[in-house]
Every structure is written in structure tokens, then in C-alpha cells.
Amino acid sequence: MGSSPPTATHPILKPALRRGWRDLNTVQFGAAPAHAVILGPVDTATGSFLTLLDGTRGVPLLREEGRRMGLPDGHVDALLHRLTRAGLIDDATGGGPAFDSLRERPGVLDRLRPDLSALTVLSPEPAAGARKLAARRTMRVQVRGTGRVGTVIASVLSAAGIGHVDVRDGGCVEPWDVAPGGLSVESVGERRDTAALRAVRRAAPDRPPRPDRRARPASGSRGRFEGPPLSLAVIAPRDGLSAYAPDPLAAEELVDSGTPHLYAGVVEATGVVGPLVLPGGTPCAGCLARGRTDRDPTWPRLIAQWRSGHQQHVPACDVALSTAVAGLAAAHALAFLDGELPASSGARWEASAPGLDWHARPVWPHPDCSCGAHERGKGEQTSEGEEQHDTMAG
């Protein structure tokens, strides 16, 4: 038997899941199959009791209400246990001190309520969604690239509650960088990083928490503190080729420091999201380049020409596709930051206009790459094989 699920102090049926009766004794929570739960049999008295699970009553009061309704002793606790194991119960007062600080700022919390609702659907345990939302405020993400894709990613992450979103880029904003949710038309001619940072702040529900002054200052910053360590870097270059065929050297310091990083961009009306690189664990840009060269020996020659050329042109990055890529990349980034492993780990998602059929292309660890992913993959396969052998032998 598994361990008992956490107990909610003030149980509430997750409001984000719609409730409907399939028949007199069966209730369905949720419309979409991915997260729907069917519960039955449920008698009439228990069905009436469900309406009391609105977060305004503690467990002792719910027991009293149950007795008044004629429910047998122990029925309320058994029902709460059953609903909690099914992932249907949240805690109206849970989330810990970090989330309590959000409750004290109702205007900020109201901005984040849709994100909180989504996290409660995705998090089976009571108050887990609240804890994840509060944890986002302590995280720092760096977005490299402030074009139509990068700036929108940064703004979406900021709007979703990530407390510290840095942006890096050079040059000045061009008219074709403007996009809804990203750089505004008023920013044309400004420094890219300055304009993108303003877009990030405009999207944020509130100001980020103050950095810990005990942290180490940024390298070369003469005592300026840059906030918490990087949780993730998103590489979304304005030149989509650098996301489609990323230069391993450009991410070398991220690999060396063990910083997770995700690629995203648009090249010639093709959008790409991934791979998500967990240094030493999943394939990196070097694995991607070596794998492509194995399949097409002329690839390095082509890449060298495309990278060294001085072709100044407006990228084929239409606003609809760039927005779709930014949204998908931000969703994958948030899934990772919330503790999940998104589908861009070990794969790259691609979609080309006009069909826009998203499909995943696996990225395999390469034996000649020094990132360590291939060696770790061999170790995991060996371990799984030994475990299977031991099980069969037993």
C-alpha cells in the first residue's frame, strides 16, 4: 500500500475542474481527458456533502456537518482520503509562508490566479500548486535574444510569476522586432536589452523579491548583486539559424557550469523549440551538431558559410509563428521550472508554415561529445539491465 496523501487543513474541491453528474451515482471532475477523474458510486448524502468542500471549513467542522447530514462515523475522513488520493482536493489555506505573502497582496494574486488554477490541476497534492507558484518568485531565468521570439518568451515567463527574468542582447530595436507581448513600436531605435527589460517589467504581476545581499556579486559587477543563481537559460537568438543549428561554443559556459538551457527560434518560416539541455544528462548542442554531420557530411561546410556570411536581411519570422514558438517555449520552460521534464528534453519540436504540424525530432547523445550525456545514458542502460537480470534471477 502507498503512503497516505497529505491532509488539507481546509479542503476544497479543485475549482478549476468542472463537476458534472454522469448519472445518479457517478460524478465526473474535469472536462479534458488528460486530467478528468470519474468518481463512483456516490450516494445522495455524499453528493450533497461535496458542496460543503469549498475551503471555508476545517476538517473538524466538516465532520460535524457530516454527522448532521446522517453520514456514518468515519465517512467524512474516508471520503476526504479518497478525494485526495484522486488528486481532487486542494487546501484553501495551504502553500506555506511564501504563498501567505502573496495572499497579503490580492492585486498580485488576482493576476496570477489563472496560473495558480493550472498548477492545481497539474499538482495532485493539496497546496502543491500554491507552493510551486510561490517558488517561481524566487527563480531567475536568463533569455538570450530580444527579437520577436525572445522578448515574448521573457514577457510570458515574467507574467507567469518568475521573479527574476534577465535579457541579453546587443544593438538597437528594429521595426521588424516589434510584436504583441514583446517589443513595442515606441521602442524602435532604443537599446535592445533596455527595451526588452521594460517589456518584462510591464508584464510582471509585481516587482521581484529583493536579492539576497549575502549572495555573490555578479562577475565584473563591482559589487552589484544580480539576484539568485540561474535556474534556466533560454537561447532564442534573433537569427533563427543559431537556434536551429546552435554553435556548441556559444553555450560552453552553460554546459561547464551545469546550467540547464533551452533553445527556441524561427528560421525561414520554421519554428523550433528544444532541445532542453540538462548538462551531463541530456544531449547538448554539440550532440546535435555531430548527429547532423553523421547524417549529412556536408553540413559543417554549409554551416560555416551561413555563419561567416555578411548577409543582412530581415528574417522570415512572421508574427503568428513567432508567437506560437514563444508560447510553446515558455510552456516548456515553466514545466521544467515547476519540477517536470518537458517533451523538449532529448528532442526538438518543429513546425513549418503553412501546415504548422508540430512534430518531435529526437536528439541523441553523441559518443564523441564531451558533455557526458552519452556516458550517462550507457550507465542508465547498464543499471536497468542489471536490475532486470536481478528480478528475473529472483
Question: How are the SSEs ordered, and which strands pair?
Answer:
Layout (H helix, E strand, L loop, with lengths): L10 E3 L5 E5 L2 E4 L7 E3 L4 H7 L8 H10 L6 H11 L3 E3 L4 H8 L2 H17 L5 H9 L3 E5 L5 H10 L4 E5 L23 H12 L28 E4 L5 H4 L7 H6 L3 E7 L2 E8 L7 H11 L3 H10 L10 H19 L9 E6 L6 E4 L10 H21 L1
Parallel strand pairs: 6-7, 6-8, 8-9
Antiparallel strand pairs: 1-5, 2-3, 3-4, 9-10, 10-11, 11-12
Helix pairs in contact: 4-6, 5-6, 7-8, 7-13
Explain what this protein looks like in three dimensions.
Helices cover 39% and strands 14% of the residues. The chain has 2 domains: 135 residues, Alpha-Beta Complex (Outer Surface Protein A, domain 3), CATH 3.90.930.60; 226 residues, Rossmann fold, CATH 3.40.50. Strand 6, helix 7 and strand 7 form a beta-alpha-beta unit. The chain has a 7-stranded mixed β-sheet. The protein is built from 14 helices and 12 strands. Helix 4 packs across helix 6, helix 7 runs parallel beside helix 8 and helix 7 packs across helix 13. The radius of gyration is 25 Å and the shape is elongated. It is an alpha/beta fold.
